[in-house]
Here is the input.
Amino acid sequence: MHNKKKLTLFKDSIRDAIYLSMKKDSNVILMGLGVDDPKGIFGTTLNIHKKFPTRVFDLPTAENGFTGFAIGLALSGKKPIITHQRVEFSLLSLDQIFNQAAKWNYMTAGKKSVPLVIRLIIGKGWGQGPQHSQSLEAIFSHIPGLKVVCPSNPYNAKGLLLSSIEDKNPVIFFEHRWLHETYGRVPKSIYKVPLGKGKIIKKGKDITLICFSLTVLECIKASKILNKFKIDVEILDLQSLRPLDKNLILKSVKKTKKTIVVDNGWSFYGISSEILAIIKENDSGKNIIAKRIGLKNTSIPSTRALAKHVYPNPISIVKAVEKILGKKFKNLNLFNENDFYSDQPYKNFLGPF
Amino acid sequence: MKKINKNKKLKLFYEMLRIREIEKSISANYAQQKMRCPIHLSTGQEAIAVGVCQNLNNKNKIVTAHRSHAHYIAKSGNLNSMLAELHGKKTGCAMGKGGSMHLIDIENGIEAAVPIVGSTIPIGTGLAWANKLNKKNNVVVIFFGDGATEEGAFFESLDFASLHNLQILFVCENNFYSVYSDIKKRQNKNRSITKISKAIGINSHAGDGNNIEEVYYEVNKILKFIKEKKRPYLIELKTYRHLEHCGPNNDDHLSYRDNNEVLKWKKKCPIKSYEIKLKKNNILSEQQYKFMKNKIKKEINKSFKFALKSNFPEKKLLFQHNYA
Here is the structure.
């Protein structure tokens, strides 16, 4: 086991990136509903207002308006960071994000740009239901003019957020709530993880699992089970969804010849669909087997009895690998699907979020 | 309207007490982890729900937001279905698919509850528009909080309701906090929800949301106005949430609300203060009070049993109602 004292929580690495950016650059502004409240957006902005009292703003419940205000700030040299506690609240501001922020640099022929970061928190579990547990990464990734990033661990969370804040164009930063309480090694200093680059987090020869955000953890768990069946998995963490690291994807799948894209959202019209299309278009020898799994294509129910069937989990990933490799793993039923929670991020979570 | 008669006073009290006791049981049982969904308890805000809904019948539709338990119960929402929904059971009002934030009871006119702030204000406006197109005179009631009045959809809905003479009662429950954010941080001190409404052409009234008789009496008058004049109306009622924004507990340890303010409002508890008043005026006896509590307790126990023994929805139901 790691010594937890030397490790950093994901939520603290987010806060650290915001703090360091604000310290380094007095133009960085933090805004959003509840950014300075006693819970500080699941701990990710906790007490930052005490360090920078003039640059942290709680806001009225006026999402479309305040996204426009942030664009105005950004056009005037500020670097706003907006946070939404649920991705669904950002949907009220899509005009400002899709029509305005995303287009500004293009429609001014590069004369102006909008350095804006919008942190969107996604999640699942504890009965949050149809309007509070969606993963809408694909919608934002569809828009030219938006960069979209999805950290999966405390290290890339900090490095990607530092890169996002420094970027001169709008970046949509997706954080999965279930990652907030995970640990990892994180340098104290400023460092960058580049936008638009994926990472092979485990090398393997038999099959590539392509994943992002929480599904990276699910794939790591799945690879440990698969290792017992002597299957050597390669895991590719996308890190950014737009720009997408096509070269890394193609390099990996051309080596393993088999891949499963494990989508964090709905697979239908999803991120995984796009990746399969790219693989297909670039597979001149037509010898790569590529499949996708993701959220079941339905609205997400509140009740845990149904919600547990919606999400991919390590067992469903292992079963998908079993199928694609044409194997039959013995005693797979020893691994109980119920050991992998779909309702709580960890066992002693007492709810609600 | 004439004076509120004794039986009505007892009814108003009983309905508030019933909401309080139901929510107390939800709060007390939450730690058992059987109700696994977010809960936004209405404790402290019961007088508004009861004062409004006691003037309505099942032809009146209501829409509400995340803090909807009191509205649902006051509007005769089925208690078995509500508790089953909170438990994620098939017998819930939305088969467990909605959870606490999506309580509905179509037969009783509880049309929608959603957690996206302000989103049901235009939907309720549309319900009233349909009433007008269908030549129905049933007033639609739209419940929302002080935070929702900051949304563009609030202004857009008031504009449209005013323009088209829609029969809507807009009820703003102003509890001064949006999650932990004080209204002072969100709105200028000179901003007035009732003045905004008047400027858009909609008559309005501000009142004490913890005074059940006042709420009942004012809403009674207002509903008559809406029906006679065929105009919308807005009422702002000030009140206070006793418990945390989301969850079963108290959150005073977070110190986002001034201690004296919390104490002041808890003293103004709509139920306790009315109990004292009714007892003092010999309208409610201790015996009657105990009888009421006992009756409610039995009802709650029965509904909890129903929820607990109900089945979870089967896997195949995941895709039911998913048409595309």
